[in-house]
Amino acid sequence: MSFTIDLNFLSFLFEGNIFYFIRQFLILIVILLVLLIILRICWKHWLDHIKKQYLAIQKYVLLSIDVPRDNEQGPEAIERFFSHLAGIKIKPTWREKYFEGHAQLDISLEIVSLEGQIRFLIYTPIQFRDLVEAAIYATYPGVEISEFDDYTKKIPDEFPNNEYDLWGADIGLYNKNPFPIRTYPNFEHTLTKELKDPIIDLLEILGKLQKGEQVWIQFIIRPAGIEFKKQGEEIVKSMMGEKADQSENIVDKTSHTVVKIGQGISDFTADALGVLFPTEAEKKREEKKIISPGEKRVIEAIQNKISKIAFETRVRLIYIGEKQVFSRDRGVIGVLSAFNAVNTLDMNGLEPEKRTVIPQRPKRVEKKKTAIKKAYQERARYWRREPKGLTRILKTIAKFLAIDFKGYRKKNILNIEELATLYHFPVVGISPPLIKKTGSKRAEPPFSLPVK
């Protein structure tokens, strides 16, 4: 048997015609990729444009909650209030999302101390006002709700400022979302069931601010998806020594099939020869992880967290004071220390997010003060300074390539029990004297009242 080489084919290669077609094919691929990138950029800018238009027409109202003097309902009552707020979650249609810009709106829960006068406030889109008020009245019949002027507008927007100084940061979870913080059931005495209010230390600190000092704390919330529930289930399985569910590729499936075939051959050989080999079930029982009491407690806490309604939560803290009375020890360290009440070493807790903390370098500190004050006033979920120099060039290139640089966009998820621990009205007997309270109960007029 013999074969011959077509010299014409070799001459075709050497003449470079095949390289010409390869070059043209690669050029076509590059053109298609560029067109896809341009289309993606246009689509992304379109979505951003219509979303900004939708958000720009939204109207908000700031509500002041005057707590009853004789309030006896603890955090479990406000937990029901948060359950009602889950109703703000929207499911826009295809047209609403991609042509009208409909997006999920946030609600901001705020605890502020204005020179020692403590107020509980709710900043809500005006279309959610009826829902918010109905949920509060249903839980606290004696509460008084009224509109309140936006206190953030009374402070200068630009820093450095001759009159005021500012410190601020976003407060986030230091562990993964499924790990819970310490919640109000853990503040009850085991025998008497008496509640040691988890926010009483915070309120005591806020009530001691001097004239010219203010502390603002906001909890920006929106309903969370179920992703964190799946993440929690995987963590629980891992802690229990079980294999978490993972998507398998063709290589994994092939290897698992080979292992099963090998196991089947081994079992058949053991039965035929009468040799005792450990079965797969026996191996699993032997390798089963022994769970310690501490791990069991953490597993139960995670399962409890992922079983309840949850919200994506942005916690933000700002301390503002006139320069002659400004004191970080009183207005910052005291508040952060109060947050330590909900922290645990084996699960989760709250701490300032490093990327958002006001830096010590003089050139950056004033610009960051301006940025965080603006973010708080706008009740923005995320904030960042305008990039400069090389950073601005790189982000411009990234934007052209449609790469989404999200800045400070770490998601922190708290369920309704955790939110109720951090934001609730204090019960009678332990309220600091400077909390705004109602002087009398709210009630309906008598039926016999004459009408003119």
How would you portray this structure in words?
This protein is an alpha+beta fold and 452 residues long. The chain folds into 2 domains: 18-57; 58-233 and 295-438, no CATH class. It has helices at residues 7-14, 17-56, 75-85, 94-98, 129-139, 200-206, 227-239, 250-273, 280-287, 293-306, 328-339, 362-377, 389-400, 416-422, and strands at 60-68, 107-114, 117-125, 144-147, 164-173, 213-223, 310-322, 350-352, 413-415, 437-438. Strands 1, 2, 3, 4, 5, 6, 7, 8, 9 and 10 form a 10-stranded mixed sheet that branches. Helix 3 packs antiparallel against helix 5 (129-139), helix 3 packs across helix 14 and helix 6 runs antiparallel to helix 11 (328-339). The longest helix is centred in the first third of the chain and has 40 residues, at 17-56. It is globular and about 90 Å long.
Order of helices and strands: HHEHHEEHEEHEHHHHEHEHHEHE
Total strands: the figure is: 10
Q: How many H/I helical runs?
A: 14
The outline comes out as globular
The major pleated sheet works out as: 10 strands, mixed
**Mean pLDDT metric:** 80
Question: Residue ranges: pLDDT <50 for 5 or more in a row?
Answer: 247-251, 402-408, 445-449
Content-based structural category: alpha+beta
Number of domains: 2
What percent of residues are in strands? 15-25%
Distance between the termini: 119 Å
